[in-house]
Amino acid sequence: MTPRTISVLGATGSIGDSALDVVARHPDHFTVAALTAHRKWERLAELCRRHRPEVAALSDPDAARALERALAGEGLPTRVLAGEAGLVDAATLPAADTVIAAIVGAAGLRPTLAAAHTGKRILLANKEALVIGGAAFMAAVEDGGATLLPIDSEHNAIFQCLPPGYARNPAASGVRRILLTASGGPFRTRPHAELAAVTVDEACAHPNWVMGRKISVDSATMMNKGLEMIEAHWLFGVARESIEVVVHPESVVHSLVEYVDGSVLAQLGHPDMRTPIAQALAFPDRVDAGVPALELVRRGSLTFEAPDLDRFPCLALAYAALGAGGTAPAVLNAANEVAVAAFLGGRIRYTDIAPACAEALARLPARPVHTLDDALAADAEARIVTRAWLKLPMAA
Ligand SMILES: NC(=O)c1ccc[n+]([C@@H]2O[C@H](COP(=O)([O-])OP(=O)(O)OC[C@H]3O[C@@H](n4cnc5c(N)ncnc54)[C@H](OP(=O)(O)O)[C@@H]3O)[C@@H](O)[C@H]2O)c1
User: Fold this and answer.
1) Ligand 1 in contact with 60 (CB < 6 A)?
2) Domains of the chain, start order
3) Is the pTM of this model over 0.85?
């Protein structure tokens, strides 16, 4: 197996945790070159002591100074960098061949794009970067000679079910449809009338997966599945009409690919992010991910149902945004980031998230995206519109 030297962007998060667990199991194959975070410098200091990276970067300059002080005199080989420039340096470090893109939200876009431009092997968890960047991101991957391997569990499942060398052309490979599975989150069967009163803790208590807070809320609203649909469109070159969302509460079947001859290939496994991360880290080889065997007989049955678009209006909004194209996905993503942060901060109700996103899409009709700047301008406008509509302070 080819040894890999890895930069982990978002090392202190849930995906970062899972990735570093897999890395630590295989010291002969994987070496850590860089680690990044936003503010959690104490956690990053622990990770630096354990993995001894060449670079550690924090986007918050005060946190970076605190990390530098904490590591001073410990004899580590680690240079501490700060700000977005520091994250970009970590993403493009010459010593690293592989970048795990696991920053949450739009903040991950520039460092991940920089990794694409410098031809890295990118293990992509940060779906928001692709939702905003779309065509520009895929062009950067191609122009930079980068390799994009999805580690979002659904997209990793689809990647594993597609033929080797698949070139974003479903017709040429006999692919009829992609079936994206969704757990339905914690509110799949909660009476409608109770949704306005759900708490942050309830929304973050996913039945099957342990994840960061933003993606947990996105799973509860099913915006996550909407963003994943847009992600699948860009990653695999599949039209919106050929992507179907199937609710599968057990989260054992991670997604499926249907071929024109009627064959349907699926990837199954425990709901544990170490599996897709290990698959992508070792690809085309395989390594132990520390995940127990899937006992199908003990599982007994697996169930599937259609998504309820009245209960999950965010999913319908994502269908609409992908259909509208241009700047619409960037607007939807930005409005959602603002609304979810406000919900997590106790400023709005759970049921305000979807109307806030709908309002942003209605007020900012889709415009064509010629360059990444067009998408970033739409992102910025949508944040202003959404904060105003939710009556949030502009700097929040
Ligand atoms: N968790 C999962 O199982 C899962 C599954 C599939 C896909 N994903 C995707 O993976 C990404 C990460 O999710 P997660 O659950 O791991 O999130 P998380 O636990 O919240 O971790 C987010 C990471 O990003 C860093 N970060 C946050 N804001 C930042 C900013 N403004 N600038 C730079 N770094 C920033 C955080 O640093 P601090 O700790 O210092 O704040 C942390 O390291 C998301 O795009 C998510 O959709 C996650």
Assistant:
1) no
2) 4-150 (3.40.50.720), 158-184+222-299 (no CATH), 320-389 (1.10.1740.10)
3) yes
